[in-house]
Design brief:
Two copies of one chain form a homodimer. Chain A is mainly alpha-helical. Chain A has helices at residues 2-12, 19-27, 32-40, 46-52, 58-70, 92-95, 98-117; strands spanning 44-45, 74-79, 85-90.
Chain lengths: 120, 120
DNA sequence: TAACATAGTACCCAAATCGAAACTGACGGA
DNA sequence: TCCGTCAGTTTCGATTTGGGTACTATGTTA
């Protein structure tokens, strides 16, 4: 209990803004965490990403990638070729987000199981 | 590296839907994680929550709380009093989400520090 | 000569989300 | 009688997000 309380006092205080809110301001929204999670598996090309995230369209994917690049979470590499080739990968900073995504993914698995066995 | 790869193969596969996406479907959006994080500190009344999340208005808070209750993450307790008293607290299931929030909060702290020291 | 591929951009419209403000209801106090 | 409290609901408008279609470049392939 006291361990959790320490966390609470350290992390919960929202004087200079809630830290959870700070995280959401960068990786919130419908797509960013999903995109980053795809990149954990390694460098991906634009169309590769789009195909692996079935519901996203080009415009959305472009926008989200641009914002992630602006916030230094991913690196965009353009190869001067025809047809074009652009690769996206996690930056070192982006990789610091992997533990958060792992926590989310694990919880998501359990959540899905729970919703299969216990439909309430 | 292989430890991470195991995670990747287990968690990244999105055949039955990406687990990160599954998590976002329940606690995604602008407010839910923030509300849940407030409740880690213990039971809160409606107005207490509203005051502690300065940017949220009553309508949004009501909606988000209703959805969190519907998904069994929080418990709503109504006291038959005038003026009304309604308390919100994390359910056992909601508490399983604490590690994810902790990961988010920790990353948020580091992110903020980074943005203070390195304004790029 | 036409089609195909990639990684976009531009434009325009629809839908979901967000938010400010007013309203509610029942009781206690001035 | 009017005001304040709490926990909302209702209404309406604004903002954000999402998405379809067409268009771009250019080298390779049929």
């Amino acid at each position: 209990m006291s361990g959790l309380d320490e966390y609470a006092s350290e992390l919960e205080e929202c004087v200079s803004g809630c830290p959870v809110e700070a995280t959401l301001s960068v990786v919130g929204g419908k797509w960013k965490a999903i995109i980053l999670w795809r990149l954990v598996g390694g460098t991906k090309r634009f169309n590769e990403l789009q195909r692996s995230i079935s519901q996203i369209n080009r415009k959305m994917l472009t926008e989200q990638l641009r914002e992630l690049e602006r916030d230094n979470l991913i690196i965009r590499t353009v190869y001067q070729q025809v047809p074009p080739k652009v690769e996206y990968s996690l930056s070192d900073y982006g990789r610091t987000f992997i533990p958060v995504m792992q926590a989310m993914a694990e919880w998501g698995l359990v959540h899905r199981e729970r919703n299969v066995t216990n439909k309430s």
